[in-house]
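Translate structure to sequence.
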């Protein structure tokens, strides 16, 4: 009986996550209806809360896949509760990605949950565990862009449409960065089981610095330009133009001067 109770509590959704979901729902409603006196504040809270929700679901996908692959220690670590505070490194998993959204509009990959890989047998399972996180971002992007590629924008307020476009931008950038085969990112985790032991040992010391390397490279103007050209192409394929994402970011950064071209709040 004790074991069953413990297992149930390990999987109970965290009140912290439910609170974030509530913020997302209320501010999404305020953005849609124009209820807020300052629409930028509502969009900021809506997009930020939705971004944190996607980060939680990203980590949950890793954990849930690991659980079904053989790591039964996942539940006791609190990863199945969707509590952002239970992750291995809350700073890397939540705080840093949110700061990058505020500063530069990039969906930065967060830190990963701690998985006991020795409990898992089979290279395909290890690859799937790593792929589960960014695939969640892909799914989130599909949901955010659905009104655009389904041509179902009639009646959707401009502010809400811009907010969805910016949120989709974050999800696409997060997915693309996560899929990079760089040590420390999920893309490398997908191919690592298929590499020789010698290569893995040589690359292992680089893992803690992989994300920092990616950030540094993105600061190079030429690389940054190519990266966002790819992002824009992907978003156009999903029905979102550059104007929508630009206006979404402009509205999100409510503390800066509003570009009247966007017609924010109209």
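Result:
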């Amino acid at each position: 009986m004790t074991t069953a109770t413990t297992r149930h509590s390990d999987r109970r959704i965290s009140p912290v996550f439910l609170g974030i979901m509530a913020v997302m729902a209320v501010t999404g409603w305020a953005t849609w209806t124009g209820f807020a006196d300052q629409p930028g504040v509502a969009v900021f809270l809506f997009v930020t809360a939705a971004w944190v929700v996607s980060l939680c679901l990203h980590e949950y996908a890793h954990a849930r896949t690991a659980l079904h692959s053989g790591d039964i220690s996942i539940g006791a670590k609190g990863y199945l509760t969707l509590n952002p505070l239970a992750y291995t490194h809350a700073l890397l998993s939540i705080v840093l990605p949110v700061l990058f959204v505020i500063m530069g509009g990039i969906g930065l990959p967060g830190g990963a949950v701690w998985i006991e890989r020795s409990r898992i047998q089979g290279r395909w399972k290890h690859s799937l565990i790593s792929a589960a996180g960014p695939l969640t971002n892909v799914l989130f992007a599909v949901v955010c862009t659905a009104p655009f590629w389904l041509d179902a924008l009639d009646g959707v307020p401009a502010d809400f449409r811009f907010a969805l476009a910016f949120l989709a931008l974050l999800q696409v950038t997060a997915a693309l960065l996560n899929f990079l085969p760089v040590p420390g990112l999920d893309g490398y985790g997908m191919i690592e089981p298929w590499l020789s032991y010698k290569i893995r040992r040589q690359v292992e010391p680089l893992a803690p610095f992989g994300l920092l390397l990616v950030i540094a490279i993105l600061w190079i103007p030429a690389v940054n330009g190519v990266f966002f050209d790819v992002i824009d192409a992907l978003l156009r394929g999903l029905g979102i133009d550059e104007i929508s994402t630009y206006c979404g970011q402009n509205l999100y950064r409510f503390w800066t001067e509003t570009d009247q071209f966007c017609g924010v709040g109209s």
